Amino acid sequence: MTKTILDELIEADEFLLPGNTACPGCGSTLALRYALKALGKDTVLVIPASCSSVYQAIYPKVSFKVITFNVAFASAAAVASGVKQALVKKGYEDVNVAVWGGDGGLIDIGAATVSGAAERNEDIFVFVYDNEAYMNTGIQRSGSTPPGARTTTTPLGKIVGFKKPMSFLMLLHGVPYVATANVAYPTDLYEKVKRAKKIKGFKFIHIFAPCPPGWRFDDSKTIEVARLAVETGYWILWEGGYRDGKLNLTLSPPSRPYKDPSKRKPLEEFLKYQGRFRGFDEESLKRLRNWIDYQWSFIDNLAGK
Amino acid sequence: MERYDVITGNDAAAWGARLSRVEVIAAYPITPQTTIVEKLAEWVDKGEMDARYIAVESEHSAMSATMGASAAGARAFTATASQGFLYMLEMISWAAGARTPIVMAVVNRALGPPWNIWSEHTDALMARDTGWIQFWASNNQEALDSIIQAYRVAEDKRVILPAMVMLEGFVLSHTAMPVKIHDQSKVDQYLPPYNPPHYVLNPKLSEPFAYGNILFPWDYVKVRLAIQKAMENSVDVIKQAAREFQEIFGIWHGDLIKEAYTDDAEVLIFALGTVAEQAEATAELLRKDGYKVGVVKVRVTRPFPKPEIAKLASKVSHVIVIDRDISFGWDGILAGEIKATLHDYKVDTPVTTKIMGIGGDDILPEHIEKAVKEVYNK
Q: Which of the listed CATH numbers 3.40.50.970, 3.40.50.300, 3.40.50.720, 2.30.29.170 matches domain A17-303?
């Protein structure tokens, strides 16, 4: 019997050790587990302040079985640039250098740094696990929080902003690889990292990673919530990049059916699980639908009809 | 081949980095630092220097990338000034905590607002509590030589801390003077390749490890105390580095301090960088009129040369500290450090602070003469 990609994912070496200090149902640790399985042992992780600074465990213990460098909030992509350039200078070009951080560290405070590294086409990975707020500091709103969601700094769900479309921004930098992923689709994530590994240059992977305490849902529901994000069209799985003189963008298989809005589940099904959307009014719903439409139209325009 | 050339302080600093065979440079332009990094970029582009140059998007990223390169085992260099220095201050502190022996040239410049591109020492002095070793150059030769010495000190296994070398904006950075450009083989003899005594960010050379993850206060204290210990160790390392430099290159810039006319001095002037140089020239003039003035150039502000300063101050009737900087609501910064030192060592010599040359204002011999005569007429 031939091995499936799922078999390969399951059998691949583990680099996130059990017994770490993540919350139950943590989406981010699932994402890291799959990403590291694809990256392998010859990897250096650069981690800005984030939940992953905490769930890697407290000194002298550590739950990551790859070299890990903890750095200041806004600095990660620049630190990774320096690490990679030094490794290339020393003749170790094949080592993967990967930034692993949250939306706060990489879409808000460190966005300029990520943009700089992307523009220079540094040969690094930047992984964002997007849990849509500053979770580690206690659920404050970030530039990646959906409009109308309740956080401790938008306690009544006041609409602020439009969830910064960081993966589109990265695509517009003309970097060779940009993808979105979702913890409910582990093989899709695993295969994307595997493909990215073969590409020299800047690689940006934006992963939807539900946060039970932050989004206020039961910690047994992480995968359901994550899957509903795709099935309602809220989170779109795609990959693309500018390679060989061409800008590519393709919808990934799990999202393909939902290009047709009539195939999508009602958005309310995604919202109803989560306390952060409690008391969501018509205006908030409209804003969120606009945001979803905006994403699909952007992708439609780039991916072609 | 060893040769003399008439070059600016910034070119001298670039030569310091080149002769030190730096492997990674990450920098962002700011006046008056620009010509250092332009020169390095040119050499790298032309293949005259075997290094990677990362043209980053900010000073914060300049220090971040430099730190990353150093932590991965490369000899790394950057340069900045003024606002750029303050913008990278978070990472300046992080780089010391991460024990990355980076060397950085700081071209001292006043802080805004109002905009001012001229010399002042306040920028670098803001980082005196970060765990960086701090050298102050008083001429272009010293800028070049201090960068080489700084790598020797920073990379010493008893130290493993970053070091910054200050040269003043325009006074040195854009002023040409004769500089000896050393023979590369002599520099190689003085400064061997960087060989990190600890794990590096390279899975081919090191086991998996994490650096900088959360730890409890009782462990945190140990890590931070190690920085203090390294600073204490660096005193002897700096002295040794200066001595051996003199043996190989025949040049003495001082170690933590450099004295002039101190043997019979009644009044001592303490200052940094070119201010000390100016004070020395003025002392020469004053001595012709019978004023027994000595000058101590404080070449290193971290680690602070407390015993040396206390001993010298104890032998005179008055101390004048000239600060080209100010800590608002406190004192001249160097003066504050010296007063604290004298108190520590129970030296009761009176100390007068003179703040001069803020924002690049000229410090002329008559300003220094006036300060000395005031003390004599008291």
A: 3.40.50.970
